[in-house]
Amino acid sequence: MRKSRDLKAYPVQFDFLGFSFQPIRFSLKKGGSFLQFDCKMSRKSKVRITGELRKLDFHNKTQRSIQGLANLLNPKIRGWIQYYGKISRKRLQPVFYYLHQRMIKWILNKYKRFKGSKIKAIKWLRFITKSYPNMFYHWKLGYKLV
What we know:
Number of strands: 3
Low-confidence stretches: none
Structural class: alpha+beta
Strand order of the largest sheet: 1-2-3
Helix content: 40-55%
Number of domains: 2
Distance between the termini: 51 Å
Mean pLDDT: 84
């Protein structure tokens, strides 16, 4: 029997139920090593979620208030966090970055007083985040606007 496994014989990465599993070799202090699988949200899942946000097209729905937007998005956000956040909430950060970018587009389309200034829209969204930290489900958990 071989002392160390040859990783070339195993798939480098595989997807299962929306997660990607990748083998990682750990060395032990006493010598030897062992193989473990790292689990993270799959790239396909991130693409699917961002596609779903794109399909909602909420950045063009300027008749909604920000509270109406929260009511539309919170069930989806809660589901994503409860499913993918079990392993690592940090890995959801790119999804919420994309969501915040769509929210900034919505602000620029809804409020003409920002005159296309992304910086003013970001400042206003940060103000809303601080004033109403429980409005969006992911804000409660600490995912803030970058």
